[in-house]
Design brief:
The protein has one domain. 39% of the residues lie in helices and 21% in strands. It has 2 helices and 2 strands. It has a two-stranded antiparallel ribbon. Strand 1 and strand 2 form a beta hairpin. The chain is elongated. The two termini are 22 Å apart.
Length: 67
């Protein structure tokens, strides 16, 4: 974690976490694929990593509520 800060919203103050990027963005990866669709093996790994990250945040008492 590089930094953290709070943002005031309609449901109170929310903690935002700033971290280093750990790889290319999805949009960058899509630039190198045919048809702008990620291969299924990469999509599965990406989804698994997101699930692990969100589960860790929940364990820390942080809830992700993005839309």
């Amino acid at each position: 974690m590089l930094d953290g800060f709070g943002i005031q919203g309609p449901n109170g103050t929310h903690l935002c976490i700033v971290s280093e990027p750990l790889g290319p963005s999805v949009s960058t990866m899509l630039e190198y694929t045919d048809g702008w669709q990620l291969p299924s093996d990469i999509s599965r790994r990406l989804a698994a990593q997101v699930a692990v990250g969100v589960a860790y945040l929940h364990e820390c008492g942080i809830v992700h509520g993005g839309t």
